[in-house]
Automatic annotation (TrEMBL):
This is PrgI family protein. The chain crosses the membrane at residues 27-49, 55-72. Keywords: Membrane, Transmembrane, Transmembrane helix. Residues 107-134 are annotated as: Disordered. Pfam families: PrgI. The keyword Transmembrane applies. It comes from the Bacteria. Residues 114-124 have a biased composition (Basic residues). InterPro entries: Uncharacterised_PrgI. Residues 125-134 have a biased composition (Basic and acidic residues). It comes from Adlercreutzia faecimuris.
Length: 134
């Protein structure tokens, strides 16, 4: 029986834990969520005059972005890295232009009746880049 020791597979993804299983970044996000929830509840109670129990929706709406930033990991990325990529994906026109580089040994085919050599060159791989209409 061999001695087995679990190790971190990718040391680049390791985050130092500050409190319990929370890293510094996650701890700051949790504190921001609690702070924003308390601030919105206090504003609703003292400024608007709504009871705190009735102000659950604004309290949750104020704290959810902090919780998502702390715990949500889409495709293994942090939220601040994923959000610009998602925005870029949805704001672009999503069109890719492909071009096939012609092989250097292929000669340009001219308009008219093709020669035997031109027909043979057209059957080769990469011949679609050598259009006779150009």
């Amino acid at each position: 029986m061999s001695l087995q020791i679990p190790i971190q597979k990718d040391i680049g993804e390791y985050e130092e834990k500050i409190v319990g299983k929370l890293s510094f970044r996650t701890l700051v996000c949790v504190a921001g969520g609690f702070g924003s929830a308390i601030l919105v509840a206090a504003l609703c109670h003292f400024w608007i005059g709504i009871e705190v129990a009735d102000a659950a929706l604004p309290v949750m709406c104020a704290s959810i972005p902090f919780w998502l930033a702390g715990f949500w990991r889409p495709f293994g990325m942090r939220a601040e890295k994923f959000a610009p990529l998602l925005a870029n994906h949805h704001l672009k026109d999503q069109k890719l232009l492909y071009s096939c580089p012609a092989a250097p040994d292929l000669q340009k085919a001219e308009a008219g009746r093709p020669t035997r050599r031109a027909r043979r060159a057209a059957r080769r791989k990469g011949a679609e880049g050598n259009e006779p209409s150009r």
